Inverse folding.
């Protein structure tokens, strides 16, 4: 499900999105990152925080350092630990002396092939934030919002002064996120989406894609999209037991071949959630309705 789009931002250039927020794009475009990972600098005074420092690429780290300028980095914050989000945290800490604060460490192998970035084994936080914990700097306050689902350790960060929410990969500005078991959990993802729908954030700043201003409308649409996928899966199984590849072929017409594996993992995430609710059962590699 596509959402909002914008022209490709300039790579390595700090772009001001609002008085307290600047964005720096890393040069790592792909079928899963769109134009690349977007790192955010929060703060316009003597203190700044860096959210999702991105991949460990010298050019991107140099661009962040240039954007930071004479300010003091008080926190390097990661929404989660996929390799397009957190590996630059350690070298940025070396260069600035700032602590790594945010999501918990997590390093798991996927149960199957994946096209998105796997987990970052180098991530070592100095402080893990619980839901509702705050970070403060000169003129800004960030509050952690636990949003498990895409990964079990995923956090968003709310900028209290402006009503902005940094959504990492939980809500992206161009597509729905991938949910890949065993760590990705569709039930948790849907609960986290319902949580965001209850909030009144004015704008989302995702790690990939354009800022989102119709926040609750977009979340409502994404929830509806996932429920529609679930209904599609159940309709597929009404015709009899099926393996996941057959369901993907039937459900995802014209899908980019690079995304077939991720689509299969998304179907598996739905099936795992449905099985937990007692609606489907698996035998070997085939799934069927329980009734």
């Amino acid at each position: 499900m596509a959402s909002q789009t914008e022209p490709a931002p300039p790579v390595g250039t700090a772009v001001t999105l609002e008085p307290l927020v600047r964005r720096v794009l890393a040069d790592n475009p792909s079928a899963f990152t769109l134009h690349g990972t977007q790192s955010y600098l929060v703060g316009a005074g003597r203190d700044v925080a860096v959210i999702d420092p991105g991949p460990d690429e010298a050019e991107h780290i140099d661009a962040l350092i240039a954007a930071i300028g004479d300010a003091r980095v008080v926190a390097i914050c990661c929404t989660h630990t996929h390799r397009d989000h957190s590996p630059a945290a350690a070298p940025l800490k070396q260069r600035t002396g700032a602590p790594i604060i945010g999501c918990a460490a997590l390093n798991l192998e996927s149960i199957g092939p994946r096209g998105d970035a796997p987990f970052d084994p180098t991530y070592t936080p100095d402080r893990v934030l619980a839901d509702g914990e705050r970070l403060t700097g000169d003129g800004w306050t960030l509050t952690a919002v636990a949003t498990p689902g895409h990964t079990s350790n995923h956090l968003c960060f709310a900028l209290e002064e402006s009503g902005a929410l940094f959504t990492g990969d939980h809500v992206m500005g161009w597509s729905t996120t991938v949910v890949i078991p065993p760590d990705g959990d569709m039930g948790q993802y849907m609960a986290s989406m319902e949580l965001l729908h209850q909030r009144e954030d004015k704008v989302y700043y995702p790690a990939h894609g354009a800022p989102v201003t119709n926040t609750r409308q977009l979340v409502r649409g994404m929830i509806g999209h996932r429920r529609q996928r679930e209904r599609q899966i159940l309709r597929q199984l009404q015709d009899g037991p099926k393996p996941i590849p057959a369901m993907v072929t039937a459900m995802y017409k014209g899908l980019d071949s690079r995304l077939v594996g991720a689509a299969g993992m998304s179907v598996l995430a739905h099936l795992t959630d449905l099985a937990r609710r007692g609606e489907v059962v698996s035998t070997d590699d085939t799934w069927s309705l329980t009734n």
In short: The chain has two domains: 15-223, 226-289. The radius of gyration is 19 Å. The first strand starts at residue 15 and ends at 18. The mean pLDDT is 92.
